[in-house]
Amino acid sequence: MDSLEELFVHRLAQQYYVEQELVDALDEMAIDATNERLSRGFTDHRDETRTQVERIEDVFAALDRPAEARDSPVLDALEEERRDLEREITDDDLRNMVYLNAGMTTERFEMTAYERLSTMAGELGYGDAVRKPLESNYDEEKAAYRELSAMETASELKSLWERLTP
């Protein structure tokens, strides 16, 4: 790799992988979460994530390249940690808290990835066909993070915090 354009395509391919993997992860957490608000939030974001996958495909098309996915070691590590904790936790409320934390961590990671892609797209002089889909995905990730953050202090999860802390 010896150009910003090649780095951009590499990072775009990683984000394509991330979004594809998260469709399944969000579906799993939506099914396994016992908190209705959390489950519904994961279901809604799973549906948004499917649209985000399509937007990344649109970006590849605008670049006149086939859509390709490249592994993302960061996402793989985050998912491995979530699954490890899932296997060890027997308390439903504590599992919900793990899901909430996993969701917030992943959203922060994705926001950073889209900020990086947008910056590179600007430096490369790419037009709206590349930049707008990335900005839309970023905006949705930011909104999802805000929603998860609000849940963290919502009354139903506040009582969970109280139950789990001495």
TrEMBL record:
SUPFAM superfamilies, per the entry: Ferritin-like
PANTHER family: PROTEIN YCIF
Organism: Natrarchaeobius chitinivorans
Protein name as it appears in the record: DUF892 family protein
Record Pfam families: DUF892
Domain of life: Archaea
